Amino acid sequence: MRIDFTVNGRRQEADDVWEGESLLYVLRERLGLPGSKNACEQGECGSCTVRLDGVPVCACLVAAGQVQGRDVVTVEGLADFARQRSRGTGARGTSLDEAQEWQAHGSDSRTGEGGGLSPVQQAFIDAGAVQCGFCTPGLLVAADEMLERNPDPDDADIREALSGNLCRCTGYEKIMDAVRLAAARRSEGV
Amino acid sequence: MPTNGVPTRLTQGSGTRGGIGESTLRPDGTLKVTGEFAYSSDMWHEDMLWGHILRSTFAHAEILSIDTGEALATPGVYAVLTYDDLPTDVRHYGLEIRDTPVLAHGKVRHHGEPVAIVAADHPETARRAAAKIKVDYRELPVVTDEATATAPGAVLVHENRDDGHAGHVPHPNIVHRQPIVRGDVGEARRRADVIVEGEYTFGMQDQAFLGPESGLAVPEEDGGVHLYIATQWLHSDLRQIAPVLGLPEDRVRMTLAGVGGAFGGREDLSMQIHACLLALRTGKPVKIVYNRFESFFGHVHRHPARLRYEHGATADGRLTHVRCRIVLDGGAYASASPAVVGNAASLGIGPYVVDDVDIEAVALYTNNPPCGAMRGFGAVQACFAYEAQMDRLAARLGMDPVEFRQLNAMEQGTLLPTGQRVDSPAPVAELLRRVKAMPMPPERQWESSEGADVRQLPGGLSNTTHGEGVVRGVGYAVGIKNVGFSEGFDDYSTARVRMEVVGGEPVATVHTAMAEVGQGGITVHAQIARTELGVARVTIHPADTRVGSAGSTSASRQTYVTGGAVRNACELVRERVLELGRRRFGSYHPAWATAELLLEDGKVVTDGGEVLAGLADVLGEEAVEVEEEWRHRPTEPFDPRTGQGNGHVQYSFAAHRAVVEVDTELGLVKVVELACAQDVGKALNPLSVIGQIQGGTTQGLGMAVMEEILVDSGTAKVRNPSFTDYLIPTILDTPTIPVDLLELADDHAPYGLRGVGEAPTLSSTPAVLAAIRDATGLALDRTPVRPEHLTGTG
Description:
Largest interface: A-B, 68 and 75 residues
Number of strands of chain B: 33
Low-confidence stretches of chain A: 102-114
Shape of chain A: globular
Radius of gyration of chain A: 16 Å
Number of strands of chain A: 5
Mean pLDDT of chain B: 96
Mean pLDDT of chain A: 89
Largest sheet of chain A: 5 strands, mixed
Strand order of the largest sheet of chain B: 3-7-1-14-11-12-13
Distance between the termini of chain A: 46 Å
Low-confidence stretches of chain B: none
Order of helices and strands of chain A: EEHEEEHHHHHH
Oligomer: heterodimer
CATH architecture of the domain at 40-140 and 212-259 and 266-298 in chain B: Alpha-Beta Complex
């Protein structure tokens, strides 16, 4: 079957999709967007979390056919998504002009700092919340969505919102730090 | 040499920004937060095929026949291979003992053993074709524990053993046995006023790294293959892969793909050989990615164990002796079992002074899932048991459990049961003091003006209690872990460091084969290069087999050993850069000949701070490059009968205090806080070090209250191979983990550092168990603890 949908603000088509394929498979293997991760493929780990019409979902549990005509945001589009949101232009993805100006974000080998990250992405780097990084994309999408709803979360709110995202490396402490940092920077207008 | 315990003077000043001791950020951080970082499962190649593995449905069975006809006839299928299709006579692999068949031959020995492999143009086609392979099995009886494995007439898991341990084991179903005897236990026992015996059970834990086993094998024009793979040790894989393929090692090229965690589970091969075989057979790139179900069958687990201990102490609280017997279940193939046995035995009494010991550790061959390396590696199981014993002894003596431990704590100069003297700081008593001194979390923190916040209570949002029946408990534990490969292993690493001018600026490139699995080794390599070479810019070359072996990313060894190799190579580069400088500029300033010179902030400076030249000017058009192996002090094997020998390189110590709240009516546990104090020698990157400690602590927490692979004792089949049924801690299960770092230098190690990653996984589990015992008054001699153990209903 053929699927037409929007990913990170751009129209995408996938042809010859087998009916049993998940949204995760289509993103990773057909659209060249492997940022959403395949840690369990049974909806337990949250590493494939994407926004489907704004709602965080496990892409592994969404059949590809279900996304026909709908709007998906993945970790690859998170920075642009956050930028659009902060400009108040709504979550419409990347404009053609911006897409044409897009280039890979270089990072400084000393500081790891790169340009063009969303606040929550930058906070994950700064707080040491990334080790192997396999859980990171899903956590970023989930944390960003939580901060959108609740800009000033307490610790119990953060834990509850991220309880569907497994991490095996960090013990979650630095992830807590990162989300607190992102919230604090937002409230300070940094 | 500086006094032991005092931070070592840097060979180079720390004047260059971003050097060691700073919490510099990960060089791969940006790629990892944008989704651009390429993990092994993200590899993609034009025209690639998908591999799939058919695994055995029985734990022990004879294979009467395999019919691949229907699978091969499936449209989209390119190849189906079984044992008979293997290209050479080398058809087994293994870390030490080559007992693991690439594909099953005549027999399967555990549930989920690879039997056949398929390549097809879509992963679902490959899966469905594999399901069409007809395997005719005849079930065999299973051995599943020590009693069945060593019973008269027991089925032998491996017949005709000829490995290096076969000659000294008491039964062919025992992989390896290591006794350690020292002093006179009989005599010491008579001095004991109190004797405590205990028998403990440790469940089977899974590494549960999030990035599944995966990789891409690309056939090359010269008949070789290039494998992009997630592993812990490229060169160990290479040595096992090449002979099976019938290729010389230089035609099997390996590049490290992004690794989604490891924790020991990637020391053994998984799909490496299978992907290469399919790629070479079909002439097309082949990708294999396990799903989580397959991952539970696709790597070894932590050995489950039965441990029997007897401790004695005098009335004033001095340990007299320890007897212990540790039985580890190695499952169907040897993997790392012999080395795990060596660790369990040599570290079996913990970080305490005991002159009279009688220790025996064995690993079994059974038809259970193969077990091998996992973070803590044999020291974890022992720590759970000896720390329970220490609490029981303290209770019998009427002593405070922390003071009792401190009274018996080892220190620098203590002799281990192996007769090896601990020749670097061993601040066991101090770590206990520090962890006990941390402020306690407030009582009844679930109470608020709006009533109980159930999220802070055992049972959480299940809303099972508002505080009724909830009892707080506090427990302590401390452990000792060896750092680096022990028992005489030639544990070296290799680093290639290059310095040249790029864009007018001096740049260092560090090339090693170290597997970055998330621990932050690459961050530290860049820091070392900045400190030693005084450059701002460091490029980390991707890890591959075009440079010499770095050894394994395990045993808490990479910062020590590959970090040591990088420092060593940098020092050699520095000498050559200074020679170049002397040749070019020596006549302009006498200090070139007379002063101690440093490289700092892109310049050559005297130790007095006078600038002699810019590095860019010294280097000019020249590139200076050095590749060199580096070794830590050699170790010795343990004597096979007495266990005596200087077997270890270094030790790592951590202590934990656990605070738990238990709903005693429902048996639900909430860990409120898990504080840790650890001696890290020198924190090269404090942010990463704390991250390691918190992560290791959390894996220990999981082992205490939730994680266990359940194997049916009648059929040896795995019952819970999924994240639905094998639970690892979520962010709701994990408490705050305050960390107190102690930095007492080990002057045998680069910068005085100490391996960090494993020690916190040891003491975390027994501290949580001790806290639950404190809350409930129950003996709790097994881990993980389940609700039925607390309510008396299980």
